[in-house]
Amino acid sequence: MPMETANMFNPASKVSKISHCSSMEQYKQMHDKSLKDPEAFWGEITKEFHFEEKVKGKFLDYNFDITKGKIFVRWLEGAKTNICYNCLDRHVLAGKGDQVAFYW
């Protein structure tokens, strides 16, 4: 399905240059990888976060076929994190407490 662009608002170029995803082309590539190889894609993303406990089971497990049993999705089975620490605390501890956290 093609992506709609008529109502798209692009960030300022100075923001795009320092962003995790700096262009629509990069976004499309990341989206494609997330669909084709979700375990590899999300494995890379999780390397950027602090975990209290690492994954103990399968990184990704799912069943979308009702003929094969119960429908389920499990991500990062057994892992534990602290969202507040990941969103704020680790950045303050890294000396970025006076910086703007999010532009848009």
From TrEMBL:
Q: Which GO terms describe its molecular function?
A: acetate-CoA ligase activity
Question: Where's the Acetyl-coenzyme A synthetase N-terminal domain?
Answer: 27-87
Task: Name one process (GO BP) from the record.
Answer: acetyl-CoA biosynthetic process
Report the domain of life of the source organism: Eukaryota
Alphabetical list of InterPro entries matching this protein: ACAS_N (IPR032387), ANL_N_sf (IPR042099)
Write down the Gene3D superfamilies for this protein, in alphabetical order. Answer: N-terminal domain of ligase-like
Q: This chain belongs to which protein, by name?
A: Acetyl-coenzyme A synthetase, cytoplasmic
Q: Which gene encodes it?
A: ACSS2_0
